[in-house]
Write a structure and sequence with these properties.
This protein is about 55% helix and about 20% strand. It is built from 4 helices and 3 strands. The two termini are about 15 Å apart.
Length: about 90
Amino acid sequence: MSDPSTYDKIWQAVLGEMELIVGRASFTTWLSNTKIISIENERAVIKVPSGFSREWLEKKYNKQILESLRNFCTNVKEIQYIIGGSDKKAVDSI
């Protein structure tokens, strides 16, 4: 899967579910500035705005994000969070 518009649609659906799970305040703080970059080899790569948000999502919400993501993309087995930068640089740094 390599179509950015498909990623955007999947991620918007995941974000909709996550907002219901975590509540509006937590969603705005931790998830509203995230973006899916790629889904390859059973791994989803999610861009986050900072190291602090990456750590928080990994520790607090990773399980829920993965479960929600698997509702739309069943082959995903893990999530990798990367910090900011342009989409191209972010993918190249993996």
